[in-house]
Amino acid sequence: MRGGSWKTFVVAGLLLGLSAWALGNEELIKLAQNPSEWPLYGRDYANTRYSPLDQINTANVGRLKVAWIQSLGTLRGQESVPIKIGDTLYVTTSWPNNIYAVDARTGRLKWKYVSDTPADAQQYACCDVVNRGAAYGNGKVFFGRLDGVLVALDAQTGRELWRATVVDYKAGYTITSPPIVIKDKVITGYAGAEFGARGAVVAYDMNTGRELWRTFTVGPGPEYDNSWQTDAWKTGGGTAWYVASYDPEANLVYYGTGNPAPWNTAVRPGDNKWSASIIALNPDDGRIVWGFQTTPQDAWDWDAENELVLVDLVIKGRKVPALMQANKNGFFYVLDRKTGKFIQGDKYYPHLNWAKGLDANGRPIEIPEMRPSLTQYVDYVCPVFWGGKNWPPMAYNPKTGLVYMPGNNMCMSIQHREVTYTKGALYIGSKHEHKPGPGAGPAKNLGQFRAFDPVNLKIVWTIDERYPGWGGALTTAGGLVFYGNEEGEFKAVDARTGKILWRFYAGSGIVAAPISYAVGGKQYIAVSVGLGGEYALLPGEAGKNLPNEVNLGGYLIAFTLD
Amino acid sequence: MRGGSWKTFVVAGLLLGLSAWALGNEELIKLAQNPSEWPLYGRDYANTRYSPLDQINTANVGRLKVAWIQSLGTLRGQESVPIKIGDTLYVTTSWPNNIYAVDARTGRLKWKYVSDTPADAQQYACCDVVNRGAAYGNGKVFFGRLDGVLVALDAQTGRELWRATVVDYKAGYTITSPPIVIKDKVITGYAGAEFGARGAVVAYDMNTGRELWRTFTVGPGPEYDNSWQTDAWKTGGGTAWYVASYDPEANLVYYGTGNPAPWNTAVRPGDNKWSASIIALNPDDGRIVWGFQTTPQDAWDWDAENELVLVDLVIKGRKVPALMQANKNGFFYVLDRKTGKFIQGDKYYPHLNWAKGLDANGRPIEIPEMRPSLTQYVDYVCPVFWGGKNWPPMAYNPKTGLVYMPGNNMCMSIQHREVTYTKGALYIGSKHEHKPGPGAGPAKNLGQFRAFDPVNLKIVWTIDERYPGWGGALTTAGGLVFYGNEEGEFKAVDARTGKILWRFYAGSGIVAAPISYAVGGKQYIAVSVGLGGEYALLPGEAGKNLPNEVNLGGYLIAFTLD
Fold first, then answer.
1. Annotated catalytic sites of A, by residue?
2. Staple B305 to which of A294, B144, B256, B523, CB 3.0 to 4.6 Å?
3. CB contact (8 A) between residue A507 and residue B68
4. Catalytic residue IDs of B
5. Of A107, A505, A529, the CB nearest to B505
6. Which residues, numbered 101 to 130 in chain A, qualify as contacts with chain B under a Cβ-Cβ cut-off of 8 Å?
7. CA-to-CA distance for B49 and B42, rounded, in angstroms?
8. Which of A464-473, B11-20, B322-331 is least confident?
9. Do the Cβ atoms of B252 and B215 come closer than 8 Å?
10. 3-state secondary structure string, B354-373?
11. Is the minimum CB–CB distance between B550 and chain A shorter than 8 Å?
12. Smallest Cβ distance to B551: which of A109, A506, A531?
């Protein structure tokens, strides 16, 4: 634990008034170097979700106990991952998207910010009224809200410093994920592809809230002619609605983009770049430096928004600056994060049945009868529109070389249909039904939690779950993986073997990823609890058992050794 | 732990089909004799809130840890005390007043019953949309709802067996407290004095829901002529809104009754019996056998509803069948529960300043200038209208001979004013303002938790609390007292010394009383958590700090030794 040196750094930074430029960037990198901290959604710019702490480990995790609970004061899906800076956790909530500063040691509130998010913003949330967390930089916390507003608060007091309206929520645009702070900028995407939003990434001056640049993710471009053969790109989706990664050396910020809109492909011939893609932008000017499309002309709702984990891997004897993604479409991708070049990939979801594999450039080799259209009904394509894995994030442990990820074992029937764009109305154009995957049934094997080897592209171990995997992963230097499930069970697993070493019943569904931090010489594990999100609250077969078994909720629990 | 013998009893009872008469009564007494159980709101008919379990004790309570959490799926004041029968907890919630069967060992839901309580019932809750718990009898669970409906459910499945509309909620009548099962009857009161309700106790056939008798608490009666000198009794309050006690030997059921309505005394000359009184009824026919009025012609909102604890005490060398109450008016009463005769009493709230004491019959010796009226403004009368202690229940420990109670240190200014009765509208007729008690201030010493000697009428120890005491007490054979506060702190205290031995931060205000039970050879402590109730949500000075410091919440936490 290097709490001492870290404190010195922060205090010095504040006192010396280091330039905003230096702080925005360097402060977060420095914080992430301190094992006690969890300064970003994925802990570090690389989104590893790896904590270097090892006080809690495979030998003693059986003694893990609740240290404190903090109520979140709202119900509905609590997808929020706290960040931890010094002795404070910052945690957001489901609608109205409040944010609280919580004493990391005692669980007590330091301040609370109750958002004035209008009630009607809730109707534009495609997938529950969630918020996934906040970002920190230069003494400020930043978070986006369901009403498309980005807010900057004083981290010490919770006082609002500025707000910016990023998008018009009445058109179906919402913000559900934390922004990213880079240099003097706070950068955010937004959601809304199901309402015909056109995706963009937008940068603000972190000190003033002034908009600096706005880069649309979809539309015609010189380097990808024919990608949009109509003007469907104007309502073309590709929203960058989840969390970004950043490579300070390459000075590239990475986003996965959502599905093109509408689902009905007939109106949008072409590959529809950069929807369902991974893109790298220069944060200084917003220029897209490279793009890599995972599902050209997506017809299945396979967003490529899933988190992008940046690690250096040794593949076939060569060290590569990798970017990894477990994509909704069922494939695991390893790209060169400097160039966007495809290095390798294979399915991580064993029952993927829509493509034969990936070609040398990483483009899927489609099986034509698995592609739905206005005229083609597909009875059983895997994975389901929620993906082999949805946004709940994976974690990478450098000690095992494995990634740990929640996943779904569900398939679907699907056929497109005509739909007309109307501002603020759903713009989907598809009739689809989710079905249990192979070997699954109602409340049985609908999810899996997996360890995956990104070098050898192999599943190492699997834990079956009754419901889809909606709780993200944490891995630690203690040789552990932590995750929760929609039934409300929170587990510690041996990172090497997949053996469950500890369980705690948390009383509501877990649809957020845990974190780990240390304060006062003690390591803690913390996780938000509260059933909700895209799967759990869905009416019908998929979700119908869950609300009978599990209550809504909203609280943050911190665990430590007794 | 006599779990074995208890199980035999229940199974035998179910198999042999013992008559409902026998079960209603004898089953609960038998259950209460099993230390592992918590079959009634106050554990036993006597409302002692004493658990004979001692696995958790003064020596090891420091090792107490969270065993599990169950979300209650609602926010607002969670005043619910679970009952525990066999391996199941039954816990109710704030509006819409759901009830859940929870596995006492794992915390998992066995079934949930989501109430169809209409939303507009919420506007008739004088003091937050709470529910304080359920009653058990003969394989059924019973609970009342904010909409005046009493529901009977199958304890195994949660299936609704019958419902009865006890009162019309649109007139301002609500049910917030558990009924009591005696013989073949389930008996309930209701709330509503602030809306001009006329109080009653009502009995139903526990198997069919048929109404058997209804005894009004206020109105003219031969034995108390002149008590109501106008017809104000028709909207005269005196509601029996809290929990009953029962003496099987005397066959008397005891209720405390609420304040008379309106607060303005001008319209109701006389003592206004049996408002602000303790009454004993024969549960077979509902006849009032005796009454004892604590605040004749109450002018301060000093309901006498507080729990009535039935124990045999030795006072001045004589064993007396006592009934004890710490009344809102600041006095502690010891009555003969067979006859209603006053034995002794004195103030338990040290700053009581409205009376010189109690006379030989237990009638307060009032200080005339402390009585508000239309023409008399009283600037600082203590206790406040919330009482020296409100409904949050005290506990009696036979090993120490002490009662343990939360309390308030608040006073008020008050003057009456004219008010006209309108169905469904507030009917109060008073202008009053709460003020910190002596030595208190905003968020400072507004509450105390006390041990009180009911024989010698002396405070034994006191723990100061920043906010009023809204969490009830539990005491155990392990020499412990447990209670929570509105800040969200849950404490274990040495019953003899008042020393705090253990604390847990629960993340939302605690306004319910804990229980203790055993299952699988392990002792548990359980408490509902969720800020709310009469004080916490009040706008203005009283509550204003609380919502800034503490979030709303809703969960049941069970603790056990690690």
1. 194, 259, 301
2. B256
3. yes
4. 194, 259, 301
5. A107
6. 106-109, 112
7. 5
8. B11-20
9. no
10. CEEEECCCCCEEECHHHCCC
11. yes
12. A109
Residue in the structure block whose two tokens are 């200080």: B367
Asked if omega into B82 is within 30° of 0 (cis), the reply is: no
Q: Answer whether residue B348 is part of any domain.
A: yes
CA distance B69 to chain A (A): 5
Question: Chain B contact for A66, CB < 8 A?
Answer: yes
Interface residue B546 vs chain A (CB under 8 A): no
User: DSSP string covering A502-554, please?
Assistant: EEEE-SS---S--EEEEETTEEEEEEEE---HHHHT-SSTTTTTHHHH-----
Strand partners, A547: none
How far is Cα B335 from Cα A125, in angstroms, rounded to an integer?
A: 60
Bridge partners of B323, per DSSP, are B310, B335
**CATH (domain of A430):** 2.140.10.10
Please report the pLDDT score of residue A545 as a whole number: 77
Closest CA to B191 of B122, B151, B237: B237
In this complex, do B551 and A69 lie within 8 Å of one another by their Cβ atoms? no
Starting at the edge strand found earlier in the chain, the sheet holding B331-336 runs B309-315, B318-326, B331-336, B342-347
| Nearest CA-CA distance, residue B441 and chain A, Å | 21
Number of domains in chain B: 1
φ, ψ of residue A195 to 5 degrees: the values are -110, 15
Nearest chain B CA: its distance from A107 CA (Å): 7
**At A299, which amino acid appears?**
A
Q: Is A507 on the interface with B (CB under 8 A)?
A: yes
How far apart are the C-alpha atoms of B324 and B188, rounded to whole Å?
Answer: 21
> Which residues in chain A have Cβ-Cβ distances shorter than 8 Å to B548?
112
Tell me whether B504 touches chain A (CB under 8 Å): yes
In order of A15, A89, A403, A433, the CA distances from A331 in angstroms are: 48, 34, 14, 22
- Give the bridge partners for B475, in sequence order: B50, B481
| Chain centre to alpha carbon of residue A556 | 18
- Angle CA(A392)–CA(A385)–CA(A121) in degrees, nearest 5? 70
Residue of chain A with shortest Cα separation from B556: A507
Q: Which range of residues forms the domain containing residue B306?
A: 9-561
Distance between alpha carbon B443 and the CA centroid of its chain, in Å? Answer: 25
| pLDDT at position B25 | 77
Residue entry with tokens 């007139």: B171
Of A107, A112, A551, the CB nearest to B548: A112
A546 band by pLDDT with thresholds 50, 70 and 90: confident
**Cβ neighbours of B108 in A, within 8 Å:** 505, 549
Strands (E), A127-167: 135-137, 140-144, 149-154, 160-165
Name the pairing type of β-strands A500-505 and A200-205: unpaired
The tokens for A52 are 């270097």
User: Which chain B residues are within 8 Å of A75, Cβ to Cβ?
Assistant: 73-75
CA-based end-to-end distance of chain A: 19
For residue B336, the tally of other CB atoms under 10 A from its CB is: 15
A420 part of a folded domain: yes
Residue A458 burial (CB count, 10 A): 12
- Least CB-CB distance to A553: which of B505, B551, B555? B555
ipTM of the complex: 0.94
**Rounded-to-integer distance, Cα A453 and Cα B198, Å:** 72
**Domain assignment of residue B277, yes or no:** yes
CA distances B357 to B305, B329, B345, B366, B433, Å, are 20, 11, 9, 8, 25
Instruction: Please give the average per-residue pLDDT across B90-117, as a whole number.
Output: 97
| Residues near B234 by beta carbon (within 8 Å), at least 6 away in sequence | B198, B219
Asked if the structure places residue A332 within a domain, the reply is: yes
**pLDDT tens per residue across span B208-252:** 999 999 999 999 876 667 899 999 999 999 999 999 999 999 999
